[in-house]
């Protein structure tokens, strides 16, 4: 069976080579992102493997199915770039890697919090220039502050464990609250409105769905504490970026740490330093000294990359063997 990989970087090849050396598959790697214009690259394949910036919309899936592709293997947890209804219609199975290293993402979220709070990014550039002044670098004790966590999956639970170690109070919101977990972890579930009102730091860990798209907009920001810190290591479209910029300008939002951006596909994972940035919204975000934007790298640890490769190949092996697909993704009946 031939598998065509899209959106491949050198580190992808390195880690997939480690786990697929003895596999019976022919693997073809492409740097370009999957879309309706380049599906011909998958000619002769029964499966394609894609990442977050690839596009598997209805037209792309139709073209893939016409070529004989029967499996889309996501080497990530999110699947908002795949039209799952179209996949069912054209007989294409979709699998993902639901968890690779919750530690990696949680630790990156904490790194953003600490860097923003203690102005590490600003201090780094100052001292390199011989400026050792403390003016403008004042932070706050995280001990005793309240963190609001939206979406209580594996990543969020690891983040909560770390934040509780700082002595923070944690309030949480989830569509399906696990009260036993809350009791054991020493947290409380609250409504979104209460979470916005009480939290000094808000961190987003929910999937991108029709319910959560742009959940952080003008209305939500207006309900937040003045000076709140907002962290997003989930999906870019959880936040309406222009509303975020307004909140920063009005000093309602004190700091923002973003590992994702709603229009990131044109920039993230690529070196565009030799080009003029034509995304005015992203350029505006980067102009704030109380904003840190990282390039969707929260997952980027050796442990996580190895686990992504291992589970992806496990998913493909299950499909090839005709087994039940452990990590199959199906359409949400509400949105189908």
Measured on Cα atoms, how large is the radius of gyration?
21 Å
CATH fold-type name of the largest domain: Rossmann fold
Quick one: CATH superfamily of the largest domain? NAD(P)-binding Rossmann-like Domain
Instruction: Please report which band the strand proportion falls in: under 5%, 5-15%, 15-25%, 25-35%, 35-45% or over 45%.
Output: 5-15%
Describe this structure in words.
The protein is an alpha/beta fold. The protein has 2 domains: 2-100 and 302-320, Rossmann fold (3-Layer(aba) Sandwich); 102-293, Rossmann fold (3-Layer(aba) Sandwich), CATH 3.40.50.720. The protein has 12 helices and 12 strands. The protein has helices spanning 10-20, 58-66, 84-89, 102-117, 120-128, 154-165, 179-185, 192-198, 218-222, 241-249, 280-286, 302-320, and strands at 2-5, 26-29, 47-50, 71-74, 93-95, 146-150, 169-173, 188-189, 201-204, 228-232, 253-258, 291-293. The strands form 2 sheets. Strands 8-7-6-9-10-11-12 form a 7-stranded parallel β-sheet, sandwiched between helices. β4 (71-74), α3 (84-89) and β5 form a beta-alpha-beta unit. The longest helix is centred in the C-terminal third of the chain and has 19 residues, at 302-320. The protein is globular, with a radius of gyration of 21 Å. The chain starts with a strand and ends in a 16-residue tail after the last helix.
Give the SSE map:
Blueprint: E1 2-5, H1 10-20, E2 26-29, E3 47-50, H2 58-66, E4 71-74, H3 84-89, E5 93-95, H4 102-117, H5 120-128, E6 146-150, H6 154-165, E7 169-173, H7 179-185, E8 188-189, H8 192-198, E9 201-204, H9 218-222, E10 228-232, H10 241-249, E11 253-258, H11 280-286, E12 291-293, H12 302-320
Parallel strand pairs: 1-2, 1-3, 3-4, 4-5, 6-7, 6-9, 7-8, 9-10, 10-11, 11-12
Helix pairs in contact: 1-12, 4-6
